What we know:
It is built from six helices and no strands. By secondary structure, the protein is mainly α. Helix 2 (30-50) packs antiparallel against helix 3. The longest helix is centred in the first third of the chain and has 25 residues, at 2-26. The chain is globular. The protein starts with a helix and ends in a 9-residue tail after the last helix. 5% of the residues are buried.
Amino acid sequence: MGDFIYHLVFYLLAASMFASALAMIFVRNIVASVVCLVGAFLGVAGFFFLLNAEFIGVVQIMVYAGALSLLIVFAIMLTDPKDHETERPKLNNILAGLVVSGALFLIMVCAISTAEWKISDAAPLLERTAVYIGVQYFTDYIVPFYLAAIILSMALTGAIVLAKKDEEGDKC
Length: 172
């Protein structure tokens, strides 16, 4: 019974995440697209909870489904609504996108199917995972941690510069 529920939740999460991702691509309203993006982020968080990675699941919800989505909504609100209007893509562009996407999908399938998946012999960490992750961040992974902080700060600064308007009303 436990395996049935686990698999049922897994497939429900996968289906909802896939539907959210497709809706995010095909919805014409940009705010609705952000809402669909939040649904995809929550599906990913659900996968982390299924894998007993609760800390990463909570971080996924707080950072991606919460903060990043809010940042995108603020960026949309700060820009000119005329910039959100898009024309329907031309057939040539759609076909080129399908070919490139299909090629990338085939490369990904080949890479995944030919990769050697090693299973660690280490015992799973069942308690105090947040403390363990915090100690690892600030000891062994301090350089990648600061690099990620710098890259995120640069992205935030770039978003502010792009959203800021000149005196004449043109974009920077």
